[in-house]
Design brief:
The protein has 282 residues and is of the alpha+beta class. The protein has 2 domains: 4-173, no CATH class; 193-281, no CATH class. Helices cover 21% and strands 29% of the residues. It has helices at residues 52-62, 74-94, 100-108, 127-137, 210-215, and strands at 4-6, 12-19, 26-28, 31-33, 35-40, 156-160, 165-168, 171-173, 193-197, 202-207, 228-238, 241-247, 258-264, 269-275, 278-281. The protein is elongated and about 65 Å long. The two termini are 35 Å apart.
């Protein structure tokens, strides 16, 4: 299911948490990115924290390995899991330098995880590893499968699974440093998403008609002073993920500055940013 995440020194950073923002399609250019959140926390995922029984039932339903009375057909489910294991072994074989072309070809078709087995490869069939991997690749919400104490989350960074690397059978490696975190404070109950500005921001000033002004809160009396709107185009790095976004705010930032983003997950939109000690609300 979910994985712990560590840095290059093997130090614990957090745990994989679920789908990254946006919640539906995370597109950078024309590429569909499979991005998950990493929740930054001192807590670790252990086998007893996870509801394997729930995921086992889901896999059985997906592969028609349940009887009419809802009982799991253990032999049929194990057969499907072993097929899954053979697929993963093929990816392991393709992760070697001599087979890198095959791995890159799979990745370009949206099926491969070209770096996943670069540093570590499980040697034996382990259904619990496959359950965790299935949970990870589908970016299921961790909280729906979590049996441990409530997680004390200090914020999130993003993790692009196509660039992901296994550190061991229960841990993913995040190679990029997290030296840009400004604050761990919440905003209106929303946890921070930590980013750094990866490219010089671009501020656009667009003309605004009467109708647009009224929609943005202007009155007929003050439209003379509110006849334009600012947009800031940002290229951000969070975790191992570079992505672009555009917000209707003039953010005074520059390349290399940390930027904290707060997202309203119900509306799927950013609600506030913190950059260089200033908070901007959308």
């Amino acid at each position: 299911m979910a994985f712990n995440v560590c840095n290059k020194k093997g130090e614990h950073i957090g745990v994989t948490f679920g789908k990254g923002w946006p919640l539906d399609d995370f597109r950078i250019g024309e590429e569909n990115r499979r991005v998950t959140y990493v929740a930054l926390t001192d807590q670790r995922i252990e086998d007893w924290n996870l509801n394997y029984e729930k995921l086992e039932k889901q896999l059985a339903e997906r592969h028609s390995a349940k009887s009419l009375f809802g009982k799991i057909k253990e032999e049929a489910l194990e057969e499907e899991l072993k097929k899954y294991w053979e697929e993963e072994k093929s990816r392991m074989e393709a992760s070697g330098e001599e087979n890198m072309y095959q791995g890159l070809k799979e990745a370009s078709q949206g099926e491969g995880y070209r770096s996943l087995y670069r540093d570590f490869q499980p040697r034996e069939y382990d259904p619990y590893f496959l359950y965790r991997l299935y949970h990870l690749k589908n970016r299921f919400d961790l909280e729906s499968y979590w049996l441990g104490e409530a997680l004390n989350i200090q914020g999130f960074v993003m993790y692009d699974l196509k660039e992901g690397v296994l550190y061991d059978e229960k841990t993913l490696l995040l190679e990029e440093p997290l030296d840009y975190i400004e604050t761990t404070e919440s905003y209106k109950g929303q946890k921070p998403i930590h980013c750094v500005i990866a490219q010089r921001p671009e501020v656009k000033i667009l003309g605004m008609g009467v109708g647009e002004g009224l929609l943005l809160g202007a009155s007929l009396g003050d439209l003379g002073g509110r006849n334009h709107v600012h947009y800031t185009k940002l290229k951000l790095l969070s975790g191992n993920t570079v992505f672009s976004t555009e917000v209707p705010i003039h953010i005074h930032g520059k390349k290399g500055l940390g930027l904290t983003m707060y997202v309203n997950r119900k509306k799927n939109t950013p609600s506030a940013f913190i950059c260089d000690g200033v908070i901007y609300t959308a």
